[in-house]
Amino acid sequence: MKTDIAIIDKGRGPQLSTSRITVQDLVPYFQLNYSYDEILEIMPSLSVAEIQEVERYVEEHREEVLEEDRRIRERNATRRNPPQVEESRRRVREKWPALQKAYEKYCGQEPNGDGNLS
Amino acid sequence: MVTGILADVNIEGHVDYLIDLAISDEWIEFWTFLELTYARFADVGLHDDASDSEIWRVCQEKGYLLITGNRNNDGPDSLESTIRSRGTADSLPVLTLADPERVRRDRLYAGGVVLSLMETLMDIDASRGAGRLYLP
């Protein structure tokens, strides 16, 4: 059993002293009202006590945490892969049409660029 | 050399789910062709509190592609900083789930992630030196 669980900052934002999992790693699941069991399915290395420590931190720093969550979502929404990587993926699709067919079989129709169905 | 996929501890359950899809009937022939293993931190000698720079070193030395989320600051020991300071033209990329919480809630999103993962893996040399790549 892990002891001395605290929130510290090693330069990656607030995180658990006992794990590399950060406060912001857990925020989306708190926002979605995930239960402890559901969170543990995603992060099985955590203990309930560690989740509760992060939960306590979020409650005590709510505005700051939500502002950082907003900044992270904005940042991630604008990030794209380098052109050579997208070109490589296009070449793979041409060379291996069965890959696209596997996806279509999985989904039932054509995907759009976001991985969603058009 | 690419040995396999390594799940970061912050999205391990999501990567488990994606690998389950990768070995399902639709995708199994591609996953088999790639001959990759799927590893968690303990499998490669990493602790749950490993630093980004330590994980980067293990991935490059042992040939693993890390799949992670991206909700951290870009501090001195962060993945971004490590990629900038230690990445070379031959370095394996880090694969990032753009929206990890959607994997289990949105089946089509999960399928899009698997498709883009397979596309990346089928031509991994084209992604060397690219740093952080996003799935889907």
List keywords for this structure.
heterodimer; A: 118 residues; mainly alpha; Arc Repressor Mutant, subunit A; 2 domains; two-stranded antiparallel ribbon; 6 helices; elongated; B: 136 residues; alpha/beta; 5-stranded parallel beta sheet; 5 helices; 5 strands; 39% helix; globular
Task: Describe the secondary structure blueprint for this structure.
The complex is a heterodimer of chains A (118) and B (136).
Chain A: E1 7-9, E2 14-16, H1 23-31, H2 36-42, H3 48-60, H4 62-78, H5 83-95, H6 97-107
Antiparallel strand pairs in A: 1-2
Helix pairs in contact in A: 1-3, 1-4, 5-6
Chain B: E1 4-7, H1 12-22, H2 28-34, E2 37-39, H3 52-62, E3 64-68, H4 79-86, E4 94-97, H5 107-122, E5 132-135
Parallel strand pairs in B: 1-2, 1-3, 3-4, 4-5
Biggest interface, and residues per chain?
A: A-B, 51 and 52 residues
Q: From the alpha carbons, calculate the radius of gyration of chain A and give it in angstroms.
A: 19 Å
Q: For the terminal residues of chain A, how far apart are their CA atoms?
A: 48 Å
Please trace the helix and strand order of chain B, writing H or E for each element: EHHEHEHEHE
Mean pLDDT of chain A equals: 90
Quaternary structure classification: heterodimer
Computed over alpha carbons, the radius of gyration of chain B is 14 Å
Strand order of the largest sheet of chain B: 2-1-3-4-5
